[in-house]
Amino acid sequence: IVLTGGDDRLWKTWGFPDGNVLMTGEGHTDWLSGCCFRPSGTQLVTSSGDTTVRLWDLSRRGCILTLRGHSRAVRGCSWHSCGDFVASASMDGTSKIWDVNSERCRYTLRGHKESVNSIEFLPFSSTVLTSSADKTLSLWDVRTVSRL
Question: TM spans, by residue (predicted)?
């Protein structure tokens, strides 16, 4: 299964290698910039130009949580390998670590001077890698909310 998101405000799962659409999700009000499966494979997260991050339950075929807190478009998102945290990167110059169990922002990472364009958790760690339009990469320890 392949997961995509696009300017049409939709995410889609596709059968591979056949290329048939298996499922489509709608709810964002602007373009999708990122989407990825939860490590368990039962849910996914999307990020959008509408400033939100959304969690979707595949069995319910719908959005189960909308995370708000960025002031500009969200450029990327990723799951932590444990499946309890989502990271988001925004054009507002911040990144956020969201606790999906408590449904709130746990940490806001500040330090880039321009848009944060991507974010990834390093596997099985508390370290996040961000890239920015300010032409820098940063490694962050999300336990201490500090750059490494």
Answer: none
CATH number of the domain enclosing 38: 2.130.10.10
- d(CA 1, CA 81) in angstroms, rounded, equals 19
DSSP 9: S
Domain boundaries, position 84:
2-147
Q: Is 113 helix (H, G, I), strand (E, B) or coil?
A: coil
78-109 confidence digits (pLDDT tens) = 999 999 999 999 999 999 999 999 999 999 99
Q: How many domains does the chain have?
A: 1
Task: With CA atoms as reference, report the closest residue to 25 among 52, 45, 40.
Answer: 45
